[in-house]
């Protein structure tokens, strides 16, 4: 019989966040032999409106969850890793990064269209400067439409997919009264989220990572706990969390986030970074782009040392080389570097 323990998981209230949090909670509970309760937390990013790039970046989705965790209101927070600022949060630690889901971006278009088949001037919705920049680099004729909202709200922006905006496909909590629908030819979303929500049928093309480089951490979850759960002798919760860590994923995202941290960049910067292990090497692919897609800077670096220290060093080395090649100016990071 599974013993109950007074541990709770903090999660945002969207369908995707709750699905991801339940997946993580189930894995931790199985590893620890105890149960985990779920607590829904409304974050600043769920309340504010306007472009994400003007709302304070990734931290708007993490700050409230982290506060609840530090206060002891919850014992574990589950984040989409790309929503976490790259700088450490005092008092907290990422105890695990479970095995990564599909890191690719996905095109969800009307009439089964692919990126190359979209008509000239097609309206493509995304709230990501990275996606917008790389799409414009491939198709400068496209019209980028800034969109926000949960998965259903975004899918409903595609002509023919309007039903997703009113709770279609079982997207509990996705209904947005008065939301704009059907005004785009396509939207770009993370393949991982669509897969976790069993919405793969909406994907008309998976965009290869060598064509559109994903966001650092895309497809990965971060299981965050208080430092005390892992200091010295781990607590039962700390032990259960670390048991679900996936080393290849941890190595990859460590390199990606070290790059982002050295560049002092967040979700408002048009920077893609994707690391993976192949033939006993950790490879890091990067794309830095001008926001209008007029210029891109691509780079690939590798290391054969599969340690967390080497992965972080790989990310820093990549960032240093990019800065020498003008990445700060290209991606609009001049303020961070005093240029």
How would you characterize the overall build of this protein?
There is one protein chain. The protein is of the alpha/beta class. It contains eleven helices and 13 strands. The chain has helices at residues 15-32, 44-47, 63-71, 129-138, 151-155, 191-196, 236-243, 247-263, 308-324, 327-330, 334-337; strands spanning 3-11, 34-40, 76-80, 92-96, 105-109, 123-125, 143-145, 186-190, 205-207, 221-226, 271-278, 281-289, 296-303. The strands form three sheets. Strands 2-1-3-10-4 form a five-stranded mixed beta sheet, sandwiched between helices. The longest helix is centred in the first third of the chain and has 18 residues, at 15-32. The protein is globular. Mean pLDDT is 88; it is low at 44-58 and 335-339.
Q: Helix and strand layout, with pairings?
A:
Layout: E1 3-11, H1 15-32, E2 34-40, H2 44-47, H3 63-71, E3 76-80, E4 92-96, E5 105-109, E6 123-125, H4 129-138, E7 143-145, H5 151-155, E8 186-190, H6 191-196, E9 205-207, E10 221-226, H7 236-243, H8 247-263, E11 271-278, E12 281-289, E13 296-303, H9 308-324, H10 327-330, H11 334-337
Average pLDDT:
88
Element pattern in H and E: EHEHHEEEEHEHEHEEHHEEEHHH
Largest sheet: 5 strands, mixed
Roughly what percent helix? 25-40%
Count of strand segments: 13
Number of helices: 11
**What separation lies between the terminal Cα atoms?**
62 Å
Unreliable sequence segments:
44-58, 335-339
Q: Which strands sit side by side, in order, in the main sheet?
A: 2-1-3-10-4
- Choose one word for the global shape: globular
Strand content: 15-25%
Query: What's the Cα radius of gyration?
Result: 20 Å
Structural class: alpha/beta
């Amino acid at each position: 019989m599974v013993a109950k323990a007074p541990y709770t998981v903090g999660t945002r209230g969207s369908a995707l966040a709750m699905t991801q949090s339940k997946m993580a909670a189930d894995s931790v509970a199985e590893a620890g032999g105890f149960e985990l309760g779920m607590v829904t937390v409304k974050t600043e990013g769920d309340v504010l409106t306007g472009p994400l790039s003007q709302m304070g970046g990734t931290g708007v989705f993490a700050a409230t969850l982290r506060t609840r965790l530090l206060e002891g209101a919850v014992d574990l927070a589950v984040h989409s890793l790309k929503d976490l600022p790259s700088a450490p949060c005092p008092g907290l630690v990422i105890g695990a990064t479970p095995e990564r889901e599909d890191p690719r971006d996905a095109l969800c278009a009307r009439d089964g269209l692919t990126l190359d088949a979209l008509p000239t001037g097609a309206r493509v919705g995304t709230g990501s400067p990275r996606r917008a920049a790389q799409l414009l680099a491939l198709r400068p004729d496209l019209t980028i439409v800034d969109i926000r909202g949960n998965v259903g709200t975004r899918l409903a922006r595609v002509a023919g997919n309007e039903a997703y905006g009113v709770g279609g496909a079982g997207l509990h909590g996705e209904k947005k009264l008065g939301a704009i629908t059907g005004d785009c030819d396509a939207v770009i979303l993370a393949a991982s989220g669509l897969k976790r929500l069993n919405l793969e049928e909406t994907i008309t093309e998976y965009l290869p990572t060598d064509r559109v480089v994903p966001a650092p951490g895309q497809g990965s979850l971060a299981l965050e706990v208080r430092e005390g759960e892992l200091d010295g002798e781990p607590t039962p919760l700390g032990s259960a969390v670390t048991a679900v860590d996936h080393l290849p994923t941890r190595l990859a995202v460590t390199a990606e986030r070290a790059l982002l941290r050295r560049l002092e960049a967040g979700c408002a910067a048009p920077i893609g970074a994707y690391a993976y292990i192949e033939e006993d090497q950790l490879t890091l692919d990067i794309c830095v782009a001008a926001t209008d897609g007029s210029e891109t800077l691509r780079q690939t670096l590798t290391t054969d040392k599969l340690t967390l220290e080497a992965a972080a060093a790989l990310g820093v080395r990549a960032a240093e080389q990019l800065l020498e090649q003008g990445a700060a100016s290209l991606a609009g990071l001049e303020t961070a570097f005093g240029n």
